[in-house]
Amino acid sequence: MVIKVLGTGCKKCKELEQNVRMALTQLQLDAQVEKVEDIAKIMSYGVMSTPALVVNEKVVSAGKLLSVDEIKGLLK
Amino acid sequence: MFNMFADWLVEDVFGLSITSKFGGALHFFIYDTLKILFLLSVMVFAISFVRSYFPPEKVKRWISGKKKGIASVLAALLGVVSPFCSCSTVPLFIGFVEAGIPLGVTFTFLISSPIVNEVSLVMLFSIFGWKIAVLYVLFGVLLAIIAGWVIGKLKLEKYVEPYVFNIQLGESVVQEMTMRERFIYAKTNVIDTVKKIWLFLLIGIGIGAWIHGYVPEDLLVHYAGKESIFAIPVAVILGVPLYSNAVGSLPMIEALMGKGVAPGTALSFMMAMTALSFPEMVLLRKVMKPQLIGIFVLIATTGIIAIGYIFNAIL
Question: What InterPro entries does the database record attribute to this sequence (chain B) (predicted)?
C-alpha cells in the first residue's frame, strides 16, 4: 500500500502525516508513507484544499485534518 | 444570562462594585470572555456544518463556464460559505486559473472568503449587533465583486507566474461526506478554532477591559470620532499587516468604541485585518508577481477606506 500526504508544508499537513503513521502502527499495517509537497504534483490529483490524503493513487480526503480513528476507518 | 453571571461573580463573590474602576474592568473581562467563547463555539459549529457542503473543488465547478457577471457574484457569495484555510491559497488560485475562471473572478473569491468568515461574524454580532454584522457582510461581498471587476478590467494576467498556466489539474473525485462526518468536521473545527485563538482572545479582552475601566470617557472622540478625517486611512493602514490578532483586537475595538471611536473606523480596521495580511501575501507571491500583489493590496485598501467613510456616514 502506498499512502501519500499532499500538502504544501503547513501545520495541518504535518499533523496529518503523523496521524497516518500513528494509524498504521495501531493497525500494524506496513505501508509506504510519502509526503508530496510539490504544488504541481498536488494539483495533478485534482485537489484544491490541503491537506489531502491519497491511498493507492486514489484521493480519499481533501481539506481536512483527519483524526487517527478516521484514517483507520479509511485504511481498513 | 452572561451579564447576570458576571454581575454575580464580581459583586457577590469578589465583593466589588461594578461602578468602580477595577470592578468595571473585571466585569467586562468575565462577561466578554463568556459571551464570545459561547457564541464562537455555536457559530463555528453551525457554519462549519454548512461549509462542509461547499468544498473548493465543487465551488470551482460551479463557477467555471458561467458568464462573467454571474460568475463574479457567485464567487463572492460562495466565498462567504466556502472553507478556505490560508495554507490552501496557492492550490486554490491555481485550480481556479486552470479551470479557466477569469483572474478578476478568482480575486473576488480570494477577497470575499477571508473577509466574511465565521470568526469575524461572531465578533461583529456580539460587539455591534446584527444590523452592523449584516451591513459588514453586504459591503464585504460588494468590495470583493468590485475589486475583482477592476482587477479583471486591468488585464493583469501577465503578472501571474507562468508556471501556473502549465499545471495540469487532475480529475477531482472527492467523496461526499456523510452526515456523521459533517458533524465530526464541524466539531473538530470548533475545537481547532478555540485552541487557535483563546490566548489572543484573552489578551485582547484583557486590554479591552483595561481601556473600559481606566481610559477616560470621550478621550478618543477627538482623535478617532466621526469628525476626524484621517482616522479611517490610519486605521486601515495599521490593520493591513495584522492578521492573527484579528480576534484579539476586537474586544479592544469594542472598548475603544465605547470611548468614542466611530463605528466606520472600527469596521474598516477589522476589514483590513481580515482581508489583507502579510502571511497571505507571502503565499500569493508563489503564484503571482509582486506587481499584481501590489495592485491587489492597493485596490482592496482603497475599497476598505471607502467603506469606512460610507459606514460613518450612514451609521
Answer: DUF318, UPF0718_permease
